[in-house]
Amino acid sequence: MHLLVVDDEETLRSVVSQVLTADGFKVSEAASGEEALEVFRSGSHQLVITDIRMGGMSGIELLTRIKEHNPDTQVVIMTSHASLDSAITALRAGAYDYLVKPFESLDLISAVAGRAAEKARLVAQNRELLEQLTHANEELQEANRALKEMAVRDGLTSLYNHRYFQESLAQEVARSKRYDKRCSLIFFDVDHFKHYNDTHGHPEGDRLLKGLAGLLTANTRACDLAARYGGEEFVLLLPETGKELALNVAEDLRSRVAEHPFAGGETQPLGRVTVSIGVAGFPEDGADAAALLSCADQLLYRAKNEGRNRVVGG
Length: 314
Known about the structure:
This protein is α/β, with parallel strands linked by helices.
């Protein structure tokens, strides 16, 4: 352990240093408070033993400056019988202990320094343990956040899953009803997806769904909620959005999908990958979440029955 001995009396400083060196400490010396502070700031001293009365900076002032720099450093004050009141002041200021000069026995120096060193070790161990616990707690919180996110995400597309969408839809409709707002729901699926899977295989079908999800998230607002409803079906919840604007969003989505160069699109019955879309708005198409979803679903199947690759909004 690194230790700093501070005293403007060279003889006393030397005696204390020799005793503590013999005890196994790595000892540095300083002849004044100013010099001690400079040495302390440039080193890693866990323990400082300083005289309380010195020319220039006093031991109490040095104690205060050391504690400001590193509160974990243990400081022992050396004082005379005539200055015991100052020693008590030093203890209140954060000193660990004090030694009275002249020393009754050199063993007292070793005993006090040993106790202070043990305190410094315990403080360092506690701080290290606290840092480890803090780090472990941060890792646990991050793991919990990741697990929570995984619980609401679709494993293939990374969009929100069916359960999270249902909860969010119910909340958004309730909020819109409470504050007299509007919201809209876009429900769509991939046209002739079974044909695509039969032609190219399910891995390519999964790749198509992932690409479609990426296209969807890249062209929606941060407040919108995109989810995989199931299979090749997707939903997009648009808060505070009227049906007319939602129809424009849906048409833009349909157009982007039709124009996107999905692999194998030329083998589809329409010569490209396309989607059919139903758009429902609250409150005109449903007074609650279930009614709104049912309406959007019916409009989606109307789009399919009317030839696919189209948007139907009632």
